[in-house]
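Retro notes, item 3 of 5
We never archived the inputs for the glutathione complex last cycle. Fixing that now. Sequence and ligand:
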Amino acid sequence: MIDLYMWGTANGLRASLALAECGLENRVHKVDITKGEAKRPEFLKLNPAGAIPVIVDRDGPDGKPLTLAQSGAIVVYACEKAGRFIPTDPRRRALAAQYFAMAASDVAGTSGTIFRLEFVVPEKSAANVEFFKQILLNYFRVIDQHLAGREYLADEISFADLMLYPNYAARRPLIEAAGGMDHLKAWGARMAARPGVQKGMNP
Ligand SMILES: N[C@@H](CCC(=O)N[C@@H](CS)C(=O)NCC(=O)O)C(=O)O
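Structure as it came back at the time:
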């Protein structure tokens, strides 16, 4: 049994999506970050960085509990534990790693920056928000072109797709408003149709 500590943000949903797609039984504990619950002492024992998601796998690799933070690390751990979504072909695996890294750093990082610029920073600036939205759209356009003639980021569904999907879903209004990116949207529809994605996105 895996305990999942999360909130319904893209980072939190990525962890629940990965566990659901990997068929790993889990118990969800909602951590209300809007009430500062991720900064409470009991939560800081799970993740000193004070951020969701975190998993505690009661049946870790050595039979002992394993506590793990960072949604990307949770995606990889779930895939390795289940033996799924890791391409066996080395070229596909390398491609999956490339798009996993792009989703984790470029896409998720920029999307998080937009959220902070819109809602958190002390001095708001519409121009700065727009600047980072264009950066994010450019990443999505690169991914859209990569998906031309491909069903998934590494040709077969992989940990890269699990990593990217929650940020795609969260930024869909921005993508729709920008227009185009039909390959990316077709990929999004393929992902959205998966029962594991549906379960994970509605924990
Ligand atoms: N890179 C981290 C980011 C985690 C993160 O930023 N989590 C946010 C919510 S999306 C959080 O818990 N913030 C704590 C807070 O706002 O108190 C990951 O992928 O897990």
